[in-house]
Design brief:
This protein has 130 residues and is an all-alpha fold. 72% of the residues lie in helices and 0% in strands. Helix 1 crosses helix 5, helix 2 packs across helix 3 and helix 4 crosses helix 5.
Length: 130
């Protein structure tokens, strides 16, 4: 375990922007803004998971797939449900197809579900790195 603490500021600020947009009444612009904010918040979230697992001395996280990374995060009690994070990863991969209304609606729905899970992750990380 490393002595240095992770800097959570970027993840926290990204999550706050996502949380603020999901509270707005949904229209096309809010949906698209939510998807955009979901993208960068998700990216920071999985990177924070990886960094925390590295910090905590887990095995070589560089060689782990995202699925394995999320399984390890669940074992470490950073996240409650690895399967939900598999879905968020899939939704993130779909964001390049959000010009299709159906895909955009699916990613928007995933972003709404992701938001409280990302907040729970941040709260867990703060227990170790605040």
């Amino acid at each position: 375990m490393s002595n240095g603490k992770l800097v959570l500021t970027a993840f926290e600020k990204a999550l706050e922007t996502l949380e603020s947009v999901v509270l707005l009444p949904k229209d096309e612009i809010v949906r698209d803004a939510t998807i955009q904010r979901f993208e960068y918040t998700y990216e920071l979230a999985w990177k924070m998971i990886k960094r925390h697992l590295d910090w905590a001395g887990f095995a070589d996280t560089a060689s782990l797939s995202k699925r394995d990374l999320f399984r390890e995060a669940a074992k470490a009690k950073l996240i409650a449900d690895a399967d939900a994070w598999f879905e968020y990863h899939q939704a993130r991969n779909e964001t390049s197809h959000t010009y299709e209304v159906t895909a955009a609606e699916e990613v928007y729905a995933a972003a709404l579900k992701f938001t409280p899970d990302a907040r729970a992750l941040l709260n867990e990380l703060k227990k170790h790195h605040a």
